[in-house]
Amino acid sequence: MKTPTPLPVEQIPETPPRTQAHARPDSSSDVLVVGAGPTGLACAIEAQKAGFKALIIDKGCLVNSIYHYPNNMVFFTTPELLEIGDIPFTTSLAKPTRLEALEYYRRVAEHYHLDVRQYQWVKTITGGDGKFRVTTTDRHSAIHDYRARKIVVATGYYDLANQVGSPGEDLDKVFHYYREPHPYYDADVVVIGGKNSAAEAALDLWRHGARVTLVHREPQMHHHVKYWVRPDIENRIKAGEIVARFNSTVQEIGADFVVLRTPSGPQRLKNDFVFALTGYHPDYDFLRSVGIELSDEQMRPVCDPENLESNVPGIYVAGVIVAGSRTNEIFIENGRFHGKLIAAHLSEKLGGGNPNIPLDAT
Ligand SMILES: Cc1cc2nc3c(=O)[nH]c(=O)nc-3n(C[C@H](O)[C@H](O)[C@H](O)COP(=O)(O)OP(=O)(O)OC[C@H]3O[C@@H](n4cnc5c(N)ncnc54)[C@H](O)[C@@H]3O)c2cc1C
Q1: DSSP letters of 12-43?
Q2: What is the architecture, at CATH level 2, of domain 28-160+280-350?
Q3: Is the minimum distance from the CB of 58 to ligand 1 under 6 angstroms?
Q4: pLDDT in tens, 27-66
Q5: 291 lines ligand 1 (CB under 6 A)
Q6: Prediction pTM value
Q7: How far is the CA of 323 from the centre of ligand 1 (A)?
Q8: Which ligand 1 atom sits nearest the alpha carbon of residue 158?
Q9: What is 174-276's CATH number?
Q10: Rounded mean pLDDT of the chain?
Q11: Which residues lie across from 309 on neighbouring strands?
């Protein structure tokens, strides 16, 4: 038998990554999940387990919010409470790092062969129960169309930062997300906020050589600051290592200064960078655009707490958006169970999944 001549190296086709190998080009599904956060993934997994064809669309990467958390963050939750799809999450220390969580959710997506369409922004959801039409825009402004019988909206809250409303907030030196300390070495930095994000950023910046002023409108740090972070930030403030301005707000931000509104009158500080870490909120306009009603006070989507179906038949809400503006009520620990509630209701409504769909991952 003739031995085949080996291909020249430049002609050897690249092995497609495993995720690409599982990519399914179809654009119709039983359940279309908007948002590939931990909740969205859990919803798709539970729908698949119930026999439905699920598709997930995210405007960023897989678990996009976690990807954008501070580079060196450590979760406050122990790993087993972040698990989805009954896949064990083991970590080297007691609490998972951001990198470990990213790896974990990648492995879960791969294990269940989840059909995740990344970098597509869901812009519109039209049609009605049983025959929804979803339109997305990708990174190259191309428009994609999907059909689905049911929709799960699990869009989180981390994309929209609460604004402090000070003149100058739109300057390049003002950030609403904290990633890492190095660029702020030997710089004058103001951190606005009194909860975990602000406390942790202030400490990290100070430990890496920034001169930090923490500005908070209340008389002390918020009672939600983690019990192991609180003594650290309070002691740094007591020692004058981090300057705290309580009962104060930022009145104006300029190119190289900020003006604070303090109990003893306006105070002008030399300033290089500002981190306004005053929380985030769900995209209420998007929810309203698909017809979901929001409560007056806390902007909670109107939904049946038993199964999370919203006031729009066939559209479910899941994850942190269920709590509206009270974003500290639902996190991964409890939002991850929404998938099971929704899948049970889907089975009731759709009478079990489509047996023609291969469910090799379940
Ligand atoms: C710094 C930090 C630390 C935290 N630590 C913990 C912890 O230790 N334990 C814990 O349980 N929780 C923790 N949380 C909270 C937790 O991460 C969130 O509650 C959780 O991510 C919410 O999950 P979700 O799936 O509802 O939303 P998200 O994880 O925010 O996912 C929503 C997804 O939807 C996508 N999306 C939004 N709009 C669209 C659209 N129109 N089209 C397509 N895609 C869209 C986004 O890109 C995103 O990927 C922490 C939060 C922060 C900020």
Answers
A1: SPPPPPHHHHT-----EEEEEEE--SHHHHHH
A2: 3-Layer(bba) Sandwich (3.50)
A3: yes
A4: 999 999 999 999 999 999 999 999 999 999 999 999 999 9
A5: no
A6: 0.91
A7: 13
A8: 30
A9: 3.50.50.60
A10: 92
A11: 316
